[in-house]
Amino acid sequence: MVVDGSWLPQSSSDLLLSFLIVGLPAATVIAWFHGEKVPQDMPRIEAWILTALALVWVAWNVAVLT
Length: 66
Fold this sequence. Notes:
single chain, 66 residues, mainly alpha, 2 helices
């Protein structure tokens, strides 16, 4: 409704959708690896997964904005 009211550009709804689709898996990965109450470090697999999700998010946003 905010987008239809021309308060926000049309692409903002697509950007929000991309954030939700990529943000939920990223939060899940972080919660999975950091769910214990002990000193934490970042395993390589977590870094790779989060990097891949970030690249997907950036590519989606670039595609939406161009």
